[in-house]
Amino acid sequence: MSSILKVRAGRVCFVQSCIQEREVSRSEVFLAGEFRAVMREQAKTGPVKIEIMKLLLHTCCAPCLIHPLEKLSEKGFKVTGLFYNPNVHPFAEYQNRRQAVEDYSKGVGLDVIYPEYVPSQYFQEVNLKEKNPDRCSLCWTFRLNATAKTAKEKGFESFSTTLLVSPYQDQELLKKIGEGISQVEGVNFYYEDFRPGFKKAHDLAKAHGVYCQKYCGCIYSEIERCKKSAKH
Fold first, then answer.
1. In this predicted structure, what is the pLDDT of residue 49?
2. CA pair distance 97, 212, nearest whole angstrom
3. Rounded to whole angstroms, how far apart are CA atoms 155 and 148?
4. What is the pLDDT of residue 216?
5. Radius of gyration of the chain (CA)
6. pLDDT tens for residues 90-100?
7. In this structure, are strands 48-52 and 3-8 parallel, antiparallel, or unpaired?
8. Of 103, 124, 139, 133, which Cα lies nearest the Cα of 217?
9. Of 50, 78, 129, 187, which residue has the fewest beta carbons closer than 10 angstroms?
10. What is the DSSP string of the chain?
11. Which residue numbers in the chain have pLDDT < 70?
């Protein structure tokens, strides 16, 4: 059997398997540090195969996709997006955000899954719990639940979310929710604080004419934004 390198978030482990993966020559592998040291050792045993870890990334919008995708790709993940956002209201807003994701993902060669838009799913989740922060935690939970289930069904090793790039979201609560869902579904939740790249990515999006929304997405956040604007 050939050795297989299993790559995830910059770390390396070897597994013995008959999985058919792309076989590469040693001259094709240009990796640093720990990875290269392991490669030199394993090169003595025969051909090396690389199995890239697949990650399903819940994607809320195009501007918030830019930085997490860049960081995850740098760390060796094979990323696929999941644009599952039934909370977004009205439908025209949903269409604007989806179109922006479609345009951006095509430009960078990212595959994205687009489940059917069913806003009633969101309203059923938050019914009688519309007050923030309960509303937000419920919204994050059911969207990440759907992401984890899809990841499990389609054979992804990990899942994560672009919500982790936003300075306006509760980072620790998102992490807690994701890790809790991970334990239930048996799919790894990849956590990273992507917030340092938020401003640069959004400035880049604006400079290139990528659609940038003015509120979180749901009708309640839109109402809150309008009320704040009316006071100024």
1. 56
2. 8
3. 10
4. 87
5. 20
6. 999 999 999 99
7. parallel
8. 139
9. 129
10. --EEEEEETTEEEEEE------EE-GGG----HHHHHHHHHHGGGS-EEEEEPEEEEE---HHHHHHHHHHHHHTT-EEEEE---TT--SHHHHHHHHHHHHHHHHHHT--EE-----HHHHHHHHTT--STTHHHHHHHHHHHHHHHHHHHHHT-SEEEEGGGG-TTS-HHHHHHHHHHHHHHHT-EEP----GGGHHHHHHHHHHTT----SS-SSHHHHHHHHHHHHH-
11. 1-51, 232
CA 139 to chain centroid, in Å, comes to 16
pLDDT, position 141: 97
- C-alpha span between 68 and 193 (Å, rounded): 9
- pTM of the shown model: 0.79
CA–CA separation, 19 and 17 (whole Å): 5
pLDDT tens-place string over residues 98-108 = 999 999 999 99
32, two tokens: 């640093």
Strand 3-8, strand 11-16: pairing? antiparallel
For residue 179 the two structure tokens come to 């890790």
Domains defined for the chain, CATH in brackets: 3-52 (no CATH), 54-227 (3.40.50.620)
